[in-house]
Amino acid sequence: MSKILGVDWGRVTLGLAVSDDLGITAQGLTSLPRVSEAKDVEAIGAFIRELGIGEIVVGLPKNMDGSQGPSAEAARKFAQALHDRLEIPVHLWDERLTTLAAERVLLDAGTSRRTRRALVNQVAASMILQGFLDRQRVRVDREDS
How buried is 117 (Cβ within 10 angstroms: 0-12 exposed, 13-18 middle, 19+ buried)? Predict the structure, then answer.
């Protein structure tokens, strides 16, 4: 099984996380400042090649009622650009409240405001990817039953 990359799309920063080789756990990788769609895809492409990534999961920022606003459309567009340019499968994952949850985890861990700002997207990417991995495992377990 190849590794999976999780992406927390944001207007200012991209948070990245990567799965282990077995697709069981997600670990934060880094946060990248947004430059342009082309440069952002290029930067992610470098991680794809370096780490042997076979799939990408992009967080889809839905509204609490499940509707999709401008941020969701921008994330969809970015996911499509990743798929088109990197030619690997790209999945969208509902990421409602992941940034708030990531901030809460970092706050509970006693991190400073500066550290939280630097890590929040990376932690959110880990949560997005872990949710995707957990769902994949449930599907496989059901198929094996």
Answer: middle
Q: How far apart are CA 54 and CA 98, in angstroms?
A: 24
What's the residue count for the chain? Answer: 145
Alpha-carbon distance of 133 to 2, in angstroms, equals 13
Q: What per-residue confidence (pLDDT) applies to 144? A: 58
Q: How far apart are the C-alpha atoms of 27 and 123, rounded to whole Å?
A: 8
Give pTM, 2 decimals.
0.87
pLDDT surpasses 70 at 143: no
Question: What is the per-residue pLDDT for 142?
Answer: 59
What span, in angstroms and rounded, lies between the C-alpha atoms of 129 and 24? 10
- Given the candidates 1.20.58.760, 3.40.50.150, 3.10.590.10, 3.30.420.140, the CATH classification of the domain at 3-144 is 3.30.420.140
